[in-house]
From TrEMBL:
<feature type="transmembrane region" description="Helical">
    <location>
        <begin position="74"/>
        <end position="91"/>
    </location>
</feature>
<protein>
    <recommendedName>
        <fullName>Small multidrug resistance family-3 protein</fullName>
    </recommendedName>
</protein>
<keyword id="KW-0472">Membrane</keyword>
<feature type="transmembrane region" description="Helical">
    <location>
        <begin position="97"/>
        <end position="118"/>
    </location>
</feature>
<feature type="transmembrane region" description="Helical">
    <location>
        <begin position="45"/>
        <end position="62"/>
    </location>
</feature>
<dbReference type="InterPro" id="IPR037185">
    <property type="entry name" value="EmrE-like"/>
</dbReference>
<keyword id="KW-0812">Transmembrane</keyword>
<keyword id="KW-1133">Transmembrane helix</keyword>
Length: 120
C-alpha cells in the first residue's frame, strides 16, 4: 500500500505534530495497561487492556507511516514522550512529578535538543 502524501519526509511542523501524537498514543497505551493491571477489575480490566492495545497499535502506525530519519528525531521524540507520560500520570493517576523527576526532565529536554538540533 502506498501513501503518496507521506512518500517523502514531512516538513518540521508536521514532523513535530506526528511525533507528539505518537508520543501521546504510546504513553496513553502504557497508562491503559497500568490501569488494566493494577487499578481495574472484571470487565473494566479487559476494556482498559483493549484500549491499551488499540493505542499502542495506533502509535506504531503513526510513528512508522512517514518516511523519515527516526534516529535523528529520536531526541525530540523522547522529550515528547516524557512530557506526555508526566501529564498522563498527573491527570489519570494523580501522580504529580517530584523534584527529582522535574530535574531529570530538564536533562531529558536538554539532551533531546542536543540530539535533534546540534549540527556538526
Amino acid at each position: 500500500m502506498s501513501f503518496p502524501l507521506l512518500s517523502r519526509e514531512p516538513g518540521p511542523v508536521l514532523t513535530y505534530l506526528v511525533l507528539a501524537a505518537a508520543a501521546f498514543l504510546e504513553a496513553f497505551g502504557d497508562s491503559c495497561f497500568q490501569s488494566a493491571l493494577y487499578r481495574s477489575t472484571g470487565p473494566a480490566r479487559f476494556l482498559a487492556a483493549g484500549f491499551g492495545v488499540l493505542a499502542l497499535a495506533a502509535y506504531g502506525f503513526t510513528v512508522n507511516l512517514p518516511r523519515w530519519d527516526f534516529g535523528r528525531l529520536l531526541g525530540i521524540y523522547v522529550v515528547f514522550f516524557f512530557l506526555c507520560a508526566q501529564l498522563l500520570a498527573w491527570l489519570r493517576f494523580d501522580q504529580r512529578p517530584s523534584l527529582p523527576v522535574c530535574l531529570g526532565g530538564v536533562l531529558i529536554v536538554a539532551g533531546g535538543c542536543v540530539i535533534s538540533f546540534w549540527r556538526v
